[in-house]
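Two proteins, back to back. First:
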Amino acid sequence: MGEAMRDRLHQPYRAGLVPGLARILEMSDTELASSPGYLGLALSGSGPTVVALATGDFDRIAGTVSSGFKEHGIESRCLVLPIDAQGRVVRELEGDSDREIEEEQ
């Protein structure tokens, strides 16, 4: 998973635009790699959000990423988000002659 998250197309070019990103990407191979449950890290979209995938040790991983930003004077916040195991659901509603679609999120 970690290798799949290494975005060689845009991360190297955006690393200079996101203070601390180069350090955090470096941590991905060192400090973060030793965390149990750590899977990988990447710049999310064009940034400045960074996404880390893990199965455990969330607080240590989040703290390590935050410290990488802090070394460059950037305050950050970490969110541990649940996985959506259901995905998007679309169903037809009854009771109207026109078809209505309701999306659950």
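And the second protein:
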Amino acid sequence: MKLWATITIILAVALILTNGLWFFGMMNSVVTDKYQGQMLYERAEMLKDFIAVSPELAAGKSKEEIVSLAEAALGEESYEKEGAVWVGWLGLVFNENDELVEVIPTWSYGEGIPPL
């Protein structure tokens, strides 16, 4: 009977330890996901803010200057598609006077491009 009591105590302690480790791992994962989600949210909001002020920052520059600056900064070649000049992950929308009116990210492709 003493052997069964020892085995039961050892198994109970092992169960408590493994459940404790599982709980700690789960809590660590939850906290990490929360911080990661907050970081992604802050970066997305910062990017939206920058995209919103980009036309004002580019005021006075020609289309060619803006496109060449974007190509140099991003290391990508530009191409035109459906009313926007695309450089890397950004679409640059110009009006008929070749002034930058909007910057659109690829994840919103088709939402902000004016009709042709």
